[in-house]
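Before the break, one more example. Copy the sequence into your notebook; we will annotate it together after we see the structure.
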Amino acid sequence: MAKQFGLSLQQVRAAIDQFCSKLDSGRRRQVLGVVLEQLDGLMATFLPKAMDGCHASAALCLRIAERQTILCGLEYAPAREAMPPHDIEQYPRPSATDMIAAAIERVANGGKPPQLEGPTEH
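Here is what the structure looks like once it is written out:
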């Protein structure tokens, strides 16, 4: 900016300090509160979808929870490359036929989820 406007570095820094808000402890708490509220809103939107089996929503919820813990100081920020949301592995959605068959099975079972095939060992 100094070169672009023909100013010294000190003049640019003075202008930035004059027109930008300071990040004191009160402002930091205010910004943190706003960001945490926004993350809570996102979590409220995507958590039900994740619980219904949407894998993309589940991955997003994990990232939101990670961000919340980092902002609250409960976890350190991991040293990793950021993963854009479109790079999250997409799982195939059930076909319409599979969803209809599952609905019929739920009705036949009195509203209970379909039984797993084969023995389940714990």
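The chain has a mean pLDDT of 79. The CA atoms of residues 25 and 31 lie 10 Å apart. Try to locate both features in your own notes.
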